[in-house]
């Protein structure tokens, strides 16, 4: 143990992170082991590089940006049935699985617990998890199959999520047979001087590595291998907060297969040219997302011959990928983006610091940064009022109230 501790001290000295052991002697033996293991698994060179990048000005990309082709679900005409039949064939053969990214807490909604357990205020009082499970099961039932459900949690909410599902008998799924839980990765948080933070529990303060971590998490947790054993070939990936997500969608799958691509995304048209959303495009000939901060007013207003916005396809985090694409994207490192957040931590003197303003950086990868690994992808436009009712804010836009209104309107219709 002493030899191990000395080696860790040397490593920390090399990177100027000696403070991580300041409270070591005050921890019980179990926590001491956890802390040492955490330190040994930190990629200090990566953390140093990510911190240094926070001080750099974000440079405008010099990539060649072009509009991306898309198909509108409601303009397919005779092709609708054609695509539907292609997709139905795959679904009937049990080749589709669903992945829901549910690593977050419902803090912004004033909810104490995993976001997926949140009740959006329907008369039925169904949680987001229950709404999604019904969505999957009701559609799969049409094809006499069970669509396996893989749920990505986090260290923060994994236990509570599984307990919630147990309490509700897994909404008809069978634990570890056709419903599986796996954790997303984490990265240490650092202060404005690049020092890694220690949390109130005396351990490294870490934050989830963003939805871009889903690919690597599927691989590292053995979920890709499990999917192979089950004969899965296509994976739907989406967030937990969209109560209208159409997860089992034969037309969407049919379009993807017919186009001969290994990845596809749904989109909704921008509410207006100035809406602050990322939109699909091509960068240097490959599929990508361009953030609203990167779009010039001219690009935002540009329209095609039919009066449609050239850059009007908003990303709604609803994707389908070939399993081979997931494997490819899981081993290719994604760039990390920094976010300046408020983080409670223990300072060098052992005092708990509760900040009133942002004081620390967290680092996360974005799922769509992997799109550049694909030669091409299909973009499928759907109607916002039928497939996109996210619950992100306590009030106002994308709140329980707006989601409830859209849900009730759709299902009454």
How does this structure look, described?
With 413 residues, the chain is of the alpha/beta class. The protein folds into 2 domains: 1-41, no CATH class; 58-412, Spore Coat Polysaccharide Biosynthesis Protein SpsA, Chain A, CATH 3.90.550.10. It has 13 helices and 18 strands. The protein has helices at residues 2-15, 29-40, 44-54, 79-92, 128-141, 158-167, 214-220, 223-229, 250-259, 297-301, 323-331, 384-387, 400-412; strands at 65-66, 71-72, 96-101, 149-153, 179-183, 186-188, 190-191, 206-208, 234-239, 263-269, 279-283, 286-290, 313-322, 337-341, 345-346, 352-353, 360-364, 378-381. The strands form 5 sheets. Strands 2-18-10-13-9-3-4-5 form an 8-stranded mixed β-sheet, sandwiched between helices. A 3-stranded antiparallel β-sheet has the order 1-11-12, with no helix packed on it. Helix 5 links the parallel strand 3 (96-101) and strand 4 (149-153). Helix 4 (79-92) crosses helix 9. The longest helix has 14 residues, at 2-15. The chain is globular, with a radius of gyration of 23 Å.
- Shape designation: globular
Hey, roughly how much beta strand do the residues contain? 15-25%
Q: What is the β-strand count? A: 18
Please give the share of residues in helix.
25-40%
Structural class: alpha/beta
Strand order of the largest sheet: 2-18-10-13-9-3-4-5
How many alpha or pi helices? 13
